[in-house]
Amino acid sequence: MKLEDLEIYNLSMVLGEKVWSIVINWNYLAIDTIGKQVIRSADSVAANISEGYGRFHSKDTKNFLFYSRGSLSETKTWLTKAYNRNLIIKEEYLTIVSEINNIGVKLNNYIKVISRNIK
Questions:
Q1: What is the pLDDT averaged over residues 97-106?
Q2: Whole-prediction pTM value?
Q3: Residue among 33, 44, 96 nearest 71 (CA)
Q4: How many domains does the chain have?
């Protein structure tokens, strides 16, 4: 199986692109403060899945999946701040948070599968 065959990886890649397409339209202050942070955290979700996938040992893979889960949570926080500061509209916010929650469930399931390989 290739990395690109993992649904969780592909969903995470889409998340990063969606966040980018939202932030790119903000003003300088918003981009420089919240924007850079949310882009980094959203991109980090897929990047950590990728880095973990490339590791030889399941324990290393699992560790990077934990980092990915943390980045996913951070992304949700930054998007909530963006919504609270009127940088994104409610519908956009609710849609992307729903996608984040879906990725979170799938990521937890992937972590469970990797954990079984450790035992």
A1: 98
A2: 0.94
A3: 44
A4: 1
